[in-house]
Amino acid sequence: MNKKQCLALEHNKPFIIENIDGKRLLDLMVEKNIFSTDDDEEIREAGTRKLTAEKFYDKLLKSKHGDAYTTFKTALNQNGDTYIVKELEKIEQKYAKVPDENLPDPRRAGVHAGGNSVYVSGHGNTVIAGGQHVTVNNTFRR
Length: 142
What we know:
Layout: H1 3-11, H2 13-19, H3 22-31, H4 37-44, H5 49-62, H6 68-78, H7 82-94, E1 111-114, E2 117-120, E3 125-130, E4 133-138
Antiparallel strand pairs: 1-2, 3-4
């Protein structure tokens, strides 16, 4: 997966996890050797839909297969989840003309908003959400 594809996934992490059914996407991912049969079993046994989606997302992001992202989008389209593909493509378009060396680190700490949720990474963050506005403050402890 290239850096732009990782950015699209990271930017949309909460939205992806909220909206995918990892079990429905597995067959194509295993068929195309993106995920192993062990990965398939681990994802299917994760439990709830959300835990399954989180496990699927983690495996996808860690995949070394060059076609992982494209196959993921194909699986989404085949399952009727085109609205997720559209969100991913918005980020792809945003960074389309930016040279890779000028792209932000896709795994940096930060805030990602998607759908009705906010994901804040990093330690000691305080989130105040109200309406369409979100304020994030670092809380420092001594």
